[in-house]
Amino acid sequence: MQEYLLSIFLGIVEGLTEFLPVSSTAHLRICEALLNIDLHDGFWKMYTIVIQLGAILALPVYFRERILKFLWTFPKGERGDRTMFTHPLSLTL
């Protein structure tokens, strides 16, 4: 039962701190130190990865329109200020 409560607590910490400019993993490590718990077990390492996947996978969903627009217009250079010399692909050469 204690592991369930710890999982809920760490999930709340992860959710609240994911989009702060400081690493949410660091917040989990701070909780580990403050609560004097050992999260170096294989289960907790996997747990940390899995709870971070939610935020990582949410970003492409949230920005899907911008990503699709970028992927569609980038190869064509469809911006009014683009010339042969300012197209992103020509700048890489």
Summary keywords:
93 residues; 2 domains; 5 helices
Q: What can you tell me about this protein's structure?
A:
By secondary structure, the chain is mostly helical. It has two domains: 2-61, no CATH class; 63-93, no CATH class. It is built from five helices and no strands. It has helices at 2-17, 24-35, 42-62, 64-73, 88-91. The longest helix has 21 residues, at 42-62. It is elongated. The N and C termini lie far apart (59 Å).
What's the rounded overall pLDDT mean? Answer: 78
DSSP strand count: 0
Order of helices and strands: HHHHH
Counting DSSP H or I runs of 4 or more residues, the number of helices is: 5
Strand portion:
under 5%
Give the uncertain stretches in residue-range form.
none
Oligomer: single chain
- For the record, give the distance between the C-alpha atoms at the N and C termini, rounded to a whole number: 59 Å
The coarse overall form would be: elongated
Please identify the structural class as seen in this structure.
mainly alpha
The rounded Rg comes to 21 Å
**Helix share bin:** 55-70%
Number of individual domains: 2
Largest sheet: none
SSE inventory with pairings:
Elements: H1 2-17, H2 24-35, H3 42-62, H4 64-73, H5 88-91
Helix pairs in contact: 1-2, 1-3
Summed up, what is this model?
The chain has 93 residues and is mainly alpha-helical. The chain has helices at residues 2-17, 24-35, 42-62, 64-73, 88-91.
